[in-house]
Amino acid sequence: MSNVAVIGSQWGDEGKGKIVDWLSNRADVVVRFQGGHNAGHTLVIDGVEYKLHLLPSGIVRKAKVSIIGNGVVIDPWALSKEIETIRKQGVEVNPQKLMIAENAPLILPVHSALDEAMEKARGNNPIGTTKRGIGPAYEDKIARRALRVCDLEYPEVMKRKLDRMMLHHNALLKGLGCDEISPDDILEQLLEIRDEILQYKAVTWLVLDKFRQEGKKILFEGAQGMMLDVDHGTYPYVTSSNMASAQAATGSGMSPDSIGYVLGITKAYTTRVGEGPFPTEQDNEIGHFLGEKGHEFGTTTGRKRRCGWFDAALVRQTIKVGGIHGIALTKLDVLDGLDEIKICVGYELNGSRIDYIPASSVEQAALKPVYETIEGWKDSTRGARSWGDIPAQAVKYVRMIEGLVEAPVTLLSTSPERDDTILMHDPFTVKG
Ligand code: IMP
What we know:
Low-confidence stretches: none
Helix content: 25-40%
Distance between the termini: 11 Å
Number of domains: 3
Structural class: alpha/beta
Largest sheet: 10 strands, mixed
Number of helices: 12
Order of helices and strands: EHEEEEHEHHHHEHEHEEHEEHEEEHEHEE
Strand order of the largest sheet: 7-6-5-2-8-1-9-13-17-18
Shape: globular
Bound molecules: inosinic acid
Radius of gyration: 22 Å
CATH class of the largest domain: Alpha Beta
């Protein structure tokens, strides 16, 4: 029996929430290992919608343990609010069900202020961040300035760290023409919230090791998508963490061989939020059709997502770099009714053909997609629960994707409802 990691294979918003929820039914433990409350996972269970940002998707189920790993950046106030909201929906949250890594760094009010100020300073060339403070919090982690969950136990450590951190950040805020922030104000806010957060503090790597020894099934829940990976994505238009499956190990304190099967969540077309290159973008009627039919608005910021054709060259690349064994194809039904469908199979760059996304942002912006076109299908695929319910032309589209991305479709999702899913192999029982 292997553990499973779920990661996004495009620019996020591939429909990970539903798949993770579906898989968490088969798992004992669900672990978040990167990102923060920039993520937005929507779960629909018995018609009730749950919107999660920082909490692992296992939280909505009884008898599952949810872990926020050390690779995540935690905004204590956002976490507290999210727990309050989900409790109002009848979900129980307690320290037996939710554990937070003692070595996870915190997002503080100064980080969101800096995120906002830096975006403003980028003028006409912003990244389009969620302004949640994600980037500045990871910067502080790498610069060894961060306050971590374990520091909440020690007010004198918090004070010392905050004084040092704000010496650095206030110089920057001043330079950007913003008001300085008092370290004592942040300390006061932290002292108010710390007990609430500390009840969930745990030595999560030890907890996970124990689960592993007991043969418990662990589900690693990725956020965002491979093209937003700080190393392998469309840098600098990326987020500040790694999404590749290797991060599931580093971001939770487990060994890479504990990961098992890596499932790449892949939308049957492509979307992106924020700025940056997007070779198959359709800023036209097709893009509008996909956006409206696919309800492509951000869960976290409500921003309209940019939409375009499926990019097989991009997904092939993220499958290889991300260590993906098989894909879960989502939102196929959004393509129902189109006369013809295009799939990007490679690019033209300055007159030459290439079949990968290069690292240079200049070259990324110059990529011209090369398409193959197939006839669409008129019948609905929505809610299909077996291959027999899928029109032949749609099956052809799925098979074409499998061939082009060089990975099998392990799972097909045909609506937001949990049971509208066709399973080819159970990721918990196949070997990666
Ligand atoms: P940040 O993570 O807020 O720094 O934003 C950096 C980039 O990642 C922006 O383009 C965001 O729109 C994008 N981004 C961050 N989180 C998500 C997500 O969960 N889904 C899709 N895009 C995201």
